[in-house]
Please model this.
Amino acid sequence: MTLPGKEATIADVVSIAVECIDCGRNRWWKPAELRRHGVSGQTPLAALSERLCCSACRADGLPGRAVSIQAAFIEEHERRRREARRRNEREVPLERSRRA
Ligand SMILES: [Zn+2]
Model:
């Protein structure tokens, strides 16, 4: 999804899945929710795993640094929304007959 030569940043994503490899917990975050972790729109995705850690593991006294990041990009999100809209249109018979 990323253009060659352009590093993906938080500004390109709608949400970020953070999965802890140690305990298996995972959660989707909105970029705004990550702001308090020092993550801004300019933060490269590659730098995310260094900034985030698993709070559950931290509570157990473990480092919680083994997190894997998965990002949902904005274009992908838009495309899915458009696809869903098209599906909805097909389910409305009036729309179809008007077009035919
Ligand atoms: Zn964990």
Observations:
- Residues 10-74 form one domain.
- Residues 54 and 64 are 5 Å apart (CA to CA).
